Predict the 3D structure of the following.
Amino acid sequence: MAYIKFKEMTHYFNFHRELELKNLPKYIHQYVLPNEKILKAYGTKRDKCVFTDQKLILFDVKGLLGNTKKIHIFPYSSLSSSAIVFKPQSIYLLFTFSSGYQMRLNYINLTSEDKSELRELFTNMISYNHK
């Protein structure tokens, strides 16, 4: 019998604002294919989360000067399970990938309209996984 320990990979993201797609930094577009469409983007002061119609891209900036950037790319096809959890002013998304990684993305200070948009995005993301 094999034992696999699951550990959340990025439980520390607390995205608190939606980013305007037309104002995204140029480096983000380097990770988006020409036939891909960016659906939504969220950010913290330093980190970014981009949802396309094919994958999730996380830009994790570390260091006092922001001199270390780790970029996580997760094709929706690699999702094995997911969940969305609603709280009074926040939502968090839980993902388990076929590699065994688990991830939690927190979205805080949301209005009911923001929650509806994120729920719709989540639903679309899951449907892209099954195409």
Observations:
- The chain has two helices and nine strands.
- The chain has a mean pLDDT of 84.
- The chain has one domain: 13-129.
- Helices lie at 26-29, 112-129.
